[in-house]
């Protein structure tokens, strides 16, 4: 097959491309330039897709003996991933930019361009497995290494794009083995630190980034009784479940810590309260993407609401409008609108949706933020 290998400049994508070459595929490497700041460099192990990373990707391609190109997708990235990130926070929701990047960039813009150029598949360094069912359909599964599993952020891609994807690292038992393999192949990125945080916020200061784009909007922090207990520079900078950085002027009567329970963008207000108010019994979600046929009846599954969160046993129901109502077992708390909800059966991904609200029981924990979701 003709395979386009996405080379981020890190060790994972380099080893994935090497494995594709070993499998006998006709491989071409491409680095996606996503930053409009051409002199951007990584700070420590933060960020990705910088000038430094492009150079590392080129050197990896040279070692592998494959053609290498840089594709400028910065405008598409800004108009989709960054714009969605800002719009979601401004609307009081908590987005996952890695999910949106996989949706709009890696398995949309990149894959569509690859197919148009005659490639059969896109190869990435994600840790996830693809298994082929008896009927020939492909299923997305968790990786062999639970600590590195990235099926959560890949679930948004859907079955059509999965059919043209390759994840050669899905069966690798540990990141240490990936690094050892890279070193044995003579790849200079074998000891390169992992990137983390949000790639377009290279210094890790998410609140500072939001403030620079959205401006300061001072408002009140209130408790569940409506009493003012502090102030903020912008409600958009807070997320449900947050404890640190609240700087409350009045302690709780019982002396216990308080957490963000709701973000109200219209009022520009943040509501805080005790930890037990974060407990969730039902999660509501929309914009579902399914890897299996949709059933109207209750579906026993496990759900995950964070990239590195623990799965929780649940029962999901598809409503008449296509949205989901998911009754979850104990232990799930602090779920924010905008988060990605992924449904599993064992290691297999069943589907993905975007959280719109939660309930503690028969009555809502908090009202859904006003305004429609940004596309």
UniProtKB/TrEMBL annotation:
Gene3D superfamilies according to UniProt: Adenine nucleotide alpha hydrolases-like domains, HUPs, Translation factors
GO biological process terms on file: tRNA wobble position uridine thiolation
Residues annotated for ATP binding in this entry: 6-13, 32, 125
Annotated region described as Interaction with tRNA, given as residue ranges: 148-150
Annotated spans, Disordered: 355-375
Positions marked as site (Interaction with tRNA): 126, 339
Catalytic reactions on record: S-sulfanyl-L-cysteinyl-[protein] + uridine(34) in tRNA + AH2 + ATP = 2-thiouridine(34) in tRNA + L-cysteinyl-[protein] + A + AMP + diphosphate + H(+)
A single GO molecular function term of this UniProt record: tRNA binding
Pfam families: tRNA_Me_trans, tRNA_Me_trans_C, tRNA_Me_trans_M
An annotated GO cellular component: cytoplasm
Function: Catalyzes the 2-thiolation of uridine at the wobble position (U34) of tRNA, leading to the formation of s(2)U34.
Similarity section: Belongs to the MnmA/TRMU family.
Protein name: tRNA-specific 2-thiouridylase MnmA
Species for this entry: Cellulomonas chitinilytica
């Amino acid at each position: 097959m003709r395979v386009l290998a996405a080379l981020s400049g890190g060790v994972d994508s380099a080893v994935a491309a090497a494995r594709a070459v070993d499998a006998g595929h006709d491989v071409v490497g491409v680095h996606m330039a996503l930053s409009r700041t051409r002199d951007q460099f990584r700070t420590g192990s933060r960020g990705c897709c910088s000038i430094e990373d492009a150079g590392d990707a080129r050197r990896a391609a040279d070692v592998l003996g494959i053609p290498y190109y840089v594709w400028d997708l910065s405008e598409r990235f800004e108009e989709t991933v960054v714009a969605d990130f800002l719009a979601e926070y401004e609307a009081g929701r908590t987005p996952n930019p890695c999910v949106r990047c996989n949706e709009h960039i890696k398995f949309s813009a990149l894959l569509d361009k690859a197919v148009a150029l005659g490639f059969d598949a896109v190869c990435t360094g994600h840790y996830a497995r693809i298994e082929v069912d008896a009927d020939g359909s492909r299923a997305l599964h968790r990786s062999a290494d639970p600590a590195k599993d990235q099926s959560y952020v890949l679930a948004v891609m859907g079955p059509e794009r999965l059919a043209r994807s390759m994840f050669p690292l899905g069966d690798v038992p540990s990141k240490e083995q990936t690094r050892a393999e890279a070193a044995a192949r003579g790849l200079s990125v074998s000891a390169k630190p992992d990137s983390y945080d949000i790639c377009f916020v290279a210094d890790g200061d998410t609140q500072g980034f939001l403030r620079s784009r959205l401006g300061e909007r001072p408002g009140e922090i209130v408790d569940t009784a409506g009493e003012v207990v502090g102030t903020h520079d912008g409600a958009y900078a807070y997320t449900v479940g947050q404890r640190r950085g609240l700087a409350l002027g009045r302690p709780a009567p019982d002396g216990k810590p308080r957490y963000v329970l709701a973000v109200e963008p219209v009022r520009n207000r943040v509501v805080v309260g005790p930890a037990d108010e974060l407990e969730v019994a039902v999660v509501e979600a929309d914009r579902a993407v399914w890897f299996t046929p949709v059933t109207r009846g209750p579906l026993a599954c496990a759900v995950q609401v964070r990239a590195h969160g623990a799965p929780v046993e649940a029962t999901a129901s598809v409503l008449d409008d296509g949205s989901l109502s998911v009754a979850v077992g104990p232990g799930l708390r602090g779920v924010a609108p905008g988060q990605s909800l992924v449904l599993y059966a064992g290691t297999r991904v069943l589907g993905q949706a975007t959280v719109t609200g939660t309930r503690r029981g028969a009555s809502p924990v908090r009202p859904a933020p006003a305004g429609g979701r940004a596309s």
